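User: quick one, sequence for these tokens?
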């Protein structure tokens, strides 16, 4: 069985951090935000599009509301519209960046889900013909590493573009704002 190699996860803990909700940390979220090649952050009124700093997959991005929304169904009409807009842009840009035609969009929420952060976040992930894990197989391996539960998964397939490399690749695809 193949897995993605994700050394970034080694530093990740499911325990809530002392600094509160990471998705409400504007400075951190702006750092992780996908940007045009001229550095302009991609966002709309209520949503952001960011790369995952602890990626589990190739092309692992997330679309996250600016407001601390924790329950599915409690977004405003504006938020739903803004989310759809960024999911569509993320899908198009990931497809162009990876020269593929496939994305997987998923949300994990609620106590019994594998969600690690309550603040809603939609994973928008590139899907490629060469993926070692596909579709639900991929989701089935969405485990996190917990200090008190050493369910450590080994991922021998390296992620090619992660964090800053992914931000650079997406910016290159997007070009300057208003292209
Ligand atoms: Zn939050």
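Assistant:
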């Amino acid at each position: 069985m193949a897995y993605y190699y994700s050394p970034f996860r080694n530093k990740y803990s499911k325990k809530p951090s002392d600094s509160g909700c990471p998705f409400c940390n504007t400075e951190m979220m702006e750092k992780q935000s996908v940007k045009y090649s001229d550095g302009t952050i991609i966002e709309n009124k209520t949503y952001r599009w960011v790369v995952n700093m602890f990626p589990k997959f190739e092309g692992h991005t997330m679309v996250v509301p600016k407001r601390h929304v924790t329950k599915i169904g409690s977004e405003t009409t504006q938020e739903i519209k803004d989310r759809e807009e960024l999911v569509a842009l993320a899908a198009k840009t990931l497809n162009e960046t990876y020269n593929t035609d496939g994305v997987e969009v998923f949300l994990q929420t609620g106590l019994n889900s594998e969600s690690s952060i309550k603040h809603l976040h939609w994973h928008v992930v590139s899907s490629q013909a060469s993926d070692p894990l596909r579709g639900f197989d991929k989701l089935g391996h969405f485990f996190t590493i917990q200090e008190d539960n050493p369910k450590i998964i080994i991922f021998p397939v390296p992620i090619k573009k992660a964090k800053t490399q992914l931000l650079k690749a997406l910016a290159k695809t997007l070009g300057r704002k208003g292209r």
